[in-house]
Amino acid sequence: MSPSRADLVADCSRCVGLCCVVPAFAPSADFALDKPAGVPCPHLGLHPAEHFGCTIHTELPERGFAGCTVYDCFGAGQRVAQAPSYAGHDWRDPDVRPAMFADFEVVERLHELQWYLLEAVERCPDPALVDEAEGLLEQVERAAASPRDVEVVRLQLRADPLLGEVSDAVREPAGVDLRGHDLAGQDLRGHDLVAATLRGAVLLGADLRGVDLTGTDLLGADLRGADLRGADASGALFWTRLQLRAARTDTTTRLPDLPA
Ligand code: SF4
């Protein structure tokens, strides 16, 4: 059975801190430490009473870990941690560690694909494309349920053109094509971005105040620090919670209805 988007929301209370262990981090404005892959962040609470929680959770930006406040595993952490094959174990057990880490990396990418495909099914006006998206969604779900030896790239290569076709159908008549453009720091106020594609665009710190993003394709767009105050982002296409958290919004921003 295919998941709902609510199933693709991280539930750290049911995880074992996988996102604080599995990835490597280089020191940057988003992460203050050099952390190799597979090594727990020193701020991860490993004492039984800490339940794999972040011990500096309430002061992440001040401590130089702003990246942790926007990160999103798409619910992969709890799915892997709660898998029957790992019952009673976590990554500290050397017998399960390699498989658990590998599963997390695969399931995270598959859940992200599901996130986009679910929106495609929900919003695409073309029934043939909806059928295709539903079929692929089921395949991705089967892969996520049994992630060993899954060729994620093969599924991504099928999803990419399909999501492009869905985007074209949703954005008809299409707006301006700015996919992949470097728009970092640019003042985009007053630009007509309705039904535009900003797929993969760099909008780091861009000024989008008051802009209407209805039907705008944001798949993969880097919106860190982008100013969306007063913008209408409620009808944009392929939003993620990560993008929303990374952008600057306030009560005047019209936001999409994403699961919390
Ligand atoms: S700082 Fe906290 S949230 Fe960030 S990786 Fe370390 S333990 Fe996890």
Automatic annotation (TrEMBL):
Gene3D superfamilies: E3 ubiquitin-protein ligase SopA. It holds the Pfam family Pentapeptide. PANTHER family: THYLAKOID LUMENAL 15 KDA PROTEIN 1, CHLOROPLASTIC. This is Pentapeptide repeat-containing protein. It comes from Nocardioides scoriae.
